[in-house]
Amino acid sequence: MARIWRFLLVCSLAGAHAQENATPQSSNNQTVPTLNSTYDYIVVGGGPSGLIVSERLAETGKSVLVLERGAPSLFSSGGNVLTPWNNTLTYFDVPALHMFLGMPGIDARCTDVPTGAAAGCLLGGGTAINGMQFVHPPTFDFDDKWPEGWRWDDVKHAAARLYERNPGTLTPSANGKLYDNDVRDVVSKFFALGGYTEVDTNEEPDRKHKVWSYPALSTQQGFRAGPVRTYLPLAEKLPNFKLQLYTKVIRAVRAGPLVTGVEVESATGQRSIINLNKGGKVILAAGAMSSPRLLFNTGIGPLEQIEIVHNGTTNVTLPPREEWVESPVGFVRDHTIVIVTFNVPGGTDVLNQTEFLDPSKELRELYAHGSGPLAQAWNRLMSYTTVTNDDGHKTFIQTHVTGLVNGTAQFLVATTHNSTSTGTLGITADGNTTWTKNPYLNSASDREAMTKALDELLAISRLPGSPLSYSAANATGASVLQVALSQQDPKNIMIPGQHMIGTTIMGTDDGTKNGSSVIDTDCKVYGTGEL
Q1: Are residues 412 and 477 located together in one domain of the fold?
Q2: Strand 82-83 to strand 86-90: parallel, antiparallel, or no bridges (unpaired)?
Q3: What sequence ranges are listed for the domain Glucose-methanol-choline oxidoreductase N-terminal (predicted)?
């Protein structure tokens, strides 16, 4: 039980092999060799963005190099973090085992990101370690927030192509059955009592008020899906595609606006330069918490962050000071989650965590056919609604419900669309990214919205016939939130959503000219030409 709570609180060798060029470059008093192999596209990061973008680019016939700092993940990709009960399955393959990916020895998470944040430093990035939630977005996510050219009508055909390869499912077992669902049965009655309606959230993604759904998961045939399973095999068939693991990118090599390649570091600490072909591009896809570090190391970002790199201990070669590009890199949003635990007076019978780590013969046989509890993720039900603050501001609320202990139901209540809390990401002298401003529930509007969302759940629990009850009979949304903010009780605590966005935000207002955007609507970093 303690291990699962720790999970919830957090979520929740080969170097370059090309021959060296005879012309070395200098990096802070070090001689850094330049490799002979050059590419049309160098993609930094083997996560969802990097793998999908690189596969699509490779389809054009251009040469593509993907650089991933971590190890393989799924067994099909060469992963070797095997389950103790099957030597052809990794912990990353089996949906139910994702809650144990923080265990010692698995080493899948980045260690140079802000305290409490979770990012995947392995092939697949976050899609290799996350909870596999695959909720198709509502159209208003794009229409309300994105610039022209990126509204839903602009991207819907691309979304359809993605869903064709990686559709997601509400029935993860191959036999179509759902398992270990006492909590779902109880909580669906709870929501019905509160006036909520059941929907298929991926068939009706715009319905986000007083609805509940079975969890939509990125799984296929009982396995974790995502780009390592659905895009990478297609790319690896192409002769112009290369994936290089265990290779950490330090910076883009830049002279003024011209980007010519990247500086990388192997697992043994050896650095080298990989150059672009003429007219080529470097594509940063290192994630919301690591792409900013690469920009800082390239001399792009708030000047105080570049100064930290300049005075730091990471031996990064920056462009001359007069070529630093001041840009608002590091603005960030995340979903704030409050965990609240309700009692089930009628009782529930849920699987113990040890039954996932050492499954019975029955569970193994089910999973051999892509079915059973091992084919499911941790949550059993999701709900969506909106709350309206006293000033009329509407905030969208998403709730994940699970059962970790018999007789209880855990609600993970998140502020989502229209939340107003923001933060900023910076860098430390030793190269870690860090919060310079924590983005969690720091606006009065979001605190009011969360309070109202909790009040609604408490009110439903007090209706006649409610299958749930709350232990503190006089509790209010405000008092529950106060306990959560105190971070004292793991059954009622605030955690990060781990859904960071915005650190290299897109827009038409050039951030190098006092605007708020880091990249333009062609994804080009303002102040550069090939990045």
Answers
A1: yes
A2: antiparallel
A3: 120-143
Could you give the residue ranges of the DSSP H alpha helices within 71-212?
139-145, 152-165, 182-193
DSSP state of 445: H
Shared domain for 479 and 409, answered yes or no, is yes
Note whether residue 430 is domain-resident: no
Query: Please, what is the end-to-end C-alpha distance for the chain in angstroms?
Result: 45
pTM: 0.92
Domain with 315 in it: what CATH number? 3.50.50.60
> Within a domain: residue 478?
yes
Q: Cβ(341)–Cβ(491) under 8 Å?
A: yes
Whether 483 and 344 share a structural domain:
yes
Number of domains in the chain: 3
Q: Is 292 exposed, middle or buried (0-12, 13-18, 19+ CB in 10 A)?
A: buried
Tokens 């092939």 -> residue = 123
CA–CA distance, 132 with 122 (Å, rounded to integer)? 16
Question: Cα–Cα distances in Å, from 281 out to 25, 56, 245?
Answer: 20, 14, 20
Determine the pLDDT at residue 25: 55
Q: 273 with 365, same domain?
A: no
Neighbours of 387 (CB within 10 A): 21
CATH number at residue 383: 3.30.410.10
Instruction: Please report the pLDDT score of residue 28 as a whole number.
Output: 58
Query: Could you tell me the mean pLDDT of each successive run of 10 residues in the chain, 531 residues long?
Result: 37 33 50 96 98 98 98 98 96 96 90 92 97 96 96 98 97 96 97 98 97 97 98 98 99 97 97 98 97 99 99 98 98 97 96 91 97 96 98 98 95 98 98 97 98 99 98 95 93 93 97 98 96 98
Q: Which residues are paired to 341 by β-bridges?
A: 410
Q: Is residue 40 part of a domain?
A: yes
The answer to the question of residue 13 being in a domain is no
Chain position carrying tokens 């979001």 = 446
DSSP state of 136: P
Helices 477-486 and 444-461: crossing angle, nearest 10°?
120
Q: What is the pLDDT of residue 30?
A: 66
Q: What are the distances in angstroms from CA 361 to CA 85, 300, 358, 368? A: 10, 55, 9, 10
Residue where a domain terminates, one of 81, 100, 128: 128
- Given a contact cutoff of 8 angstroms between Cβ atoms, the answer to whether 470 and 409 are in contact is no
Residue 417 and residue 135: Cα distance in Å, rounded? Answer: 14
Say how far apart CA 483 and CA 465 lie, in whole Å: 27
405 in the same domain as 339: yes
Residue appearing with tokens 């595609």? 241
Domain co-membership, 173 together with 258:
no
State the residue for tokens 């969208």. Answer: 396
Q: What is the pLDDT of residue 102?
A: 87
Burial of 8 (0-12, 13-18, 19+ CB in 10 A): buried
Q: Which of 290, 297, 323, 301 is nearest to 312 (CA)?
A: 297
Is there a single domain that holds both residue 242 and residue 278?
yes
- The range of the structural domain enclosing residue 280 comes to 25-72+228-326+504-513
**66/528 Cα distance (integer angstroms):** 21
